Structures are given as C-alpha cells and as structure tokens.
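Minutes, project check-in
Item: structure for the 91-residue chain
Input as provided by the requester:
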Amino acid sequence: MNKGELVDVVAARADVTKKQADAVLSAALDSIMDSVSRQEKVTLVGFGSFEARERKAREGRNPKTGEKMDIPATRVPAFSAGKMFKDKVAE
C-alpha cells in the first residue's frame, strides 16, 4: 500500500474527502518526523513508537572494491511495533 492508497482507505473509513484525509495524514507524518528529528520519542499506544537511535561508527567494506572504509557514527530513525500491532500481524 502506498500513500495514495492509504489516503483512499482513511477517507472512506473516516467519511471525509480524500483531500482532507491527505492533509491530516501528511500533517501527522510531518509531526512525527519533526519530533523524532528533535530526539523526542513518539508513542502511539497499540500501534508502536518512533524514536531516533544512535548508530556507532564502524568499519565496513566497499562492496565494489573490497577496500576497508570507516563508516561514521550517525543517528537513524527507528520504529518498534506495539503489542496490538504485533498481535494483529500474527493472526
């Protein structure tokens, strides 16, 4: 499912226009990205949590040449599924 298909489903379930559903979905996703980029954890009970995690510097290899290279430390987004989400997928 892509964003357009998700907008269609949300619009149908919430009985709103596709334009309204797209605006709300975009605002929600932008808010989550802004919060996580500010090191804030976003928790949606039953669905899951979004947070930023630190990835340590490490040594890697260039797959083309096999040459060793240093990969710098960075911060990456992470998602952890909530219990209700896990249970629904496991059905």
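Outcome recorded: The beta strands are 42-44, 48-55, 58-61, 68-71, 74-81.
No further action items on this chain.
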